[in-house]
Amino acid sequence: MIRAFALIGAAALVAGSAFAGPDVIIKQRALELRDQNNVQQGVTPPSQPPPPATSPGTSASPTPIQQSIAKLRADLTAIKANSPATAQQKQQIAADLIAAAQGANKPSQPTAASLANSLAGAFAEKPLEDKDCRRLLSDLAAVLNPAKIQAAQMQAIYADIQAIFQANGMARKEAVKIVDQVKAVAAETQKSAG
Asked: Whole-prediction pTM value?
């Protein structure tokens, strides 16, 4: 609760020098705090499509997207805390991101590499808990395969990604940087999807 008041107070002080009015900034920070609390409590964001259901007793083979996301998960979780990711790890994460995009449009190598570097840095600084990592990967899968994602859902996904990293202790500025890189990936994967 004290953190909420501190966050709102800081937002009010910054608002005087910003173009947006104080009410807009305070509301935005309150929404960010709500999203962070939802991540910490494991509340599923309303934007995420439900995972595909499999009927009991059948063992469906994983889809190409699921395989790509599993590889991305393995490569992200292989990064050790407090140890910088290697160039090879970053390259593999970028390749995983590109491979996970199954539509006609894939992110470019430079765009994927930029996001991969930031993700690798975040995981090297402080890896995500398993539930948060699953949530992040679900969000990334949606961004990389946006065919059935509406604009409002995409905005909620961006907010969720930011909240995941901020709830994990990352500074807001760094979490926003990752979200901006995710938006760049989305812009490339959505070129003709919309």
From this structure: 0.72
Residue labelled with tokens 């259901």 = 53
**Is the model's pLDDT at 179 over the cut of 80?**
yes
CB atoms within 10 A of CB 183: 16
Asked if pLDDT for residue 20 goes beyond 90, the answer is no
- Report percent pLDDT > 90 for the chain: 60
- The phi and psi torsions of 102 (rounded to 5 degrees) equal -100, -5
Tell me: pLDDT of 47 over 80. no
Integer Cα distance of 144 and 146 in angstroms = 6
User: Cα–Cα distance between 46 and 37 in angstroms, integer?
Assistant: 14
- For residue 152, the number of C-alpha atoms closer than 13 Å in the C-beta half-sphere is 1
Contact 165, 174 (CB under 8 A): yes
pLDDT of 110 strictly over 60 = yes
90 closest CA partner among 110, 67, 69, 107: 110
| Phi, psi angles (nearest 5°) of residue 121 | -65, -40
